[in-house]
């Protein structure tokens, strides 16, 4: 059965390792026959949440920027894949800002049930991704119909496009896409 898959790449770096892995997952998901939408935050305007909670009453944020369009895509997708570099053992600021701005989903009838994570870090230890996983799981704890479904964690990726040299990791991303 075909799924509507949304991949959100949160890195602002060109040739970023997390985006390269996300693109590889996208290839696998498309090959499996899924309807895939890929969004990069590179050229998006996403302002900080003001904490007014109006979105929980109106269904959308009062701030008019790209976050509202992206949140609507999140709401109407079956599967969400977040891709982020690990910065100081945490998700990118862009990812956290978008998660905060997706607060309207708390009271919405969202479709997604599966949420995946792609992380890349200069640190080679897999533990470098744990705080990122915990942050994403914290968001999901407030969205009780969705669950954390898996993570592809790449390490020892200090320079742009280093991931292209890690063939096993690239294969894992492609296969994860095929198996969504």
Give an overview of the whole structure.
The protein has 180 residues and is of the alpha/beta class. It has one domain (4-178): Rossmann fold (3-Layer(aba) Sandwich), CATH 3.40.50.360. The chain has six helices and five strands. Helix 5 links the parallel strand 4 (114-120) and strand 5 (147-154). The radius of gyration is 15 Å and the shape is globular. The mean pLDDT is 97.
Approximate helicity band: 25-40%
Helical segment tally? Answer: 6
The radius of gyration computed from the alpha-carbon positions, rounded to a whole number of angstroms, is 15 Å
Query: CATH homologous superfamily?
Result: Flavodoxin domain
Q: What is the average of the pLDDT values?
A: 97
| Termini Cα gap | 10 Å
- The CATH topology label is Rossmann fold
Strand residues, percent: 15-25%
Number of E strands: 5
Number of domains: 1
Unreliable runs, pLDDT <50, ≥5 residues? none
- Order of strands, main sheet, comes to 2-1-3-4-5
Secondary-structure element order, N to C: EHEHHEHEHEH
State the shape. Answer: globular
CATH architecture: 3-Layer(aba) Sandwich
Question: Which structural category do the helix and sheet elements fall into?
Answer: alpha/beta
| Major sheet details | 5 strands, parallel
- The first-level CATH class is given as Alpha Beta
